[in-house]
Specification:
4-stranded mixed beta sheet; Immunoglobulin-like; single chain; globular; 6-stranded mixed beta sheet; Collagenase (Catalytic Domain); alpha/beta
Length: 445
């Protein structure tokens, strides 16, 4: 602040010489923009060390009230997340974790996320039952004391729960983890490991004797992902490992059939009573398996031939492996977990009222037209009707096709079909490709 005061004071004196007005104006704007750029371009090493602070939380409540509780602080060797754009996020998400200098409004790190807890709140069960969900977030290890805030948003993009706590790096109760890692293999090395995206594939419901099957399933998923643009053109920006986490039993739990298995991540079908919704609620177990490995984005492969999966922004992508739809599903779910893309399909009866029609979704590939500006409106040709009929004439056109975000009416998608809509469409639509490219650039540039 003192530098700015001196600068503007000196500049005022300089302007008093009227013969130098134009020269002064030029110098003023030059120095002003340098000052602004320097104030925004904070450096990783100014605030953080090359370690990861893993923060475990419990989110709990029901539709009437939601709560955030701090569970445990953990420190792991090395940091594998972003080192630039530290105080920015590529998408809003359904929640954010924000790190500030202690007793200051200066944000030094921010990330966005979504959670199963918030999704559960849209279910009828949340009207009559209170539940708790584990959640885990990674932030770079701060050099000095910081204040960490967690915000959860409702589907109107309003804060519904918030909690701030202080982290002192020298706190003796911060757990030291990750010195001994779960065995893993490097599947693909990035061209520049300091500016890349770290993905960890994790084995779930594979026994020790099935690890060769897991490694083959990883290779299939990797090739499926990089067969799609824009991942294909950016393949050298991804660093990929396969984590060989061993389960005592083969295959996940299927509560709907009375099947319960002892697996490393306790994954199961019938999440929220949906037969095909395959998830894990054991987020701490998941991150314990990954502790010390080079990871940020997570793809959990589940050893089953039953159809199912799930993708949660900056949490995980989880997919079955031995169903005929394995490849399109693992790619679709990565669209959720990595790029925050919304589902573009709709139900005849809207069982999940996720998107109020008078609120613009934050996801880049759907709109309620409440505030469409800044999405894909410039990619729609003037001759294309809005809304756009799903006819052969507009099969490959970008427009406003009604039916998306689980709603038949009032929510629109960019194209008739896309990888985020059906398993049979071989590609992401142009709007989704652009959104994914923006996230890749955010992490690597």
């Amino acid at each position: 602040m003192s530098i700015r005061i001196v600068f503007f004071s000196n500049f005022a004196q300089y302007l008093s010489n009227k013969s130098n007005d134009m020269k002064a104006l030029s110098i003023f704007f030059t120095l002003f923009f340098v000052l602004v750029i320097n104030s925004q371009a904070q450096k990783f090493d100014d605030y953080f060390i090359d370690k990861t602070l893993r923060i475990d939380y419990t989110f709990s409540g029901d539709v009437h009230a939601q709560h955030i509780f701090l569970d445990q602080l953990n420190m792991m060797p090395h940091w594998y997340g972003k080192r630039s754009h530290l105080s920015e996020v590529p998408m809003e998400g359904n929640g954010q974790i924000i790190v500030k200098e202690h007793n200051s409004e200066h944000v030094i790190y921010k990330n966005s996320f979504s959670t199963l807890f918030q999704e559960w709140l849209s279910n009828d069960e949340a009207k009559i039952v209170q539940r708790s969900f584990e959640n885990v977030y990674l932030v770079p290890m701060p050099k000095d004391t910081v204040d960490v805030t967690v915000n959860l948003y409702n589907n109107r993009r309003e804060i519904m729960a918030t909690m701030t706590h202080t982290v002192v790096p020298t706190d003796i109760l911060i757990h030291q983890i990750g010195e001994q890692t779960t065995p893993f293999e490097v599947v693909q090395q990035a061209k520049d490991e300091n500016h890349c995206i770290h993905i960890a594939f994790v084995a779930e419901a594979y026994t020790e004797s099935e690890m060769n099957i897991f490694m083959e399933d990883v290779r299939v998923a990797v090739e499926a992902l990089f067969a799609h643009e824009p991942f294909k053109s950016n393949r050298d920006k991804f660093n990929i490992i396969a984590v060989k986490s061993v389960s005592q039993e083969s295959g996940p739990s299927i509560p709907g059939k009375g099947i319960w298995k002892n697996t490393v991540l306790h994954s199961h079908f019938n999440t929220f009573y949906s037969d095909r919704y395959l998830t894990t609620l054991a987020l701490k177990d998941l991150h314990n398996v990954l502790a010390g490995t080079p990871y940020e984005h997570i793809i959990v492969l589940v050893n089953t031939n039953n159809y199912g999966g799930g993708g949660i922004l900056n949490s995980y992508n989880l997919s079955m492996t031995h169903h005929s739809m394995y490849k399109p599903v693992v790619v679709h779910e990565f669209g959720h977990s990595f790029a925050g893309l919304a589902d573009e399909y709709a139900y005849e009866f809207e069982a999940i009222p996720m998107y109020p029609k008078d609120v613009e979704p934050w996801e880049k590939n759907i709109t309620t037209l409440h505030n469409f500006k800044g999405k894909w409106e410039k990619q729609i040709k003037s001759s294309t009707p809005k809304p756009t009929p799903a006819t052969a004439e507009y099969k490959d056109k970008i427009g406003l096709f009604e039916g998306a975000g689980y709603s038949m009416k009032g929510v629109y998608r960019p194209t008739q079909d896309c990888r985020m809509r059906t398993n049979t469409k071989p590609d992401f639509c142009p709007v989704c490709r652009q959104a994914i490219q923006e996230v890749i650039d955010f992490y690597t540039k």
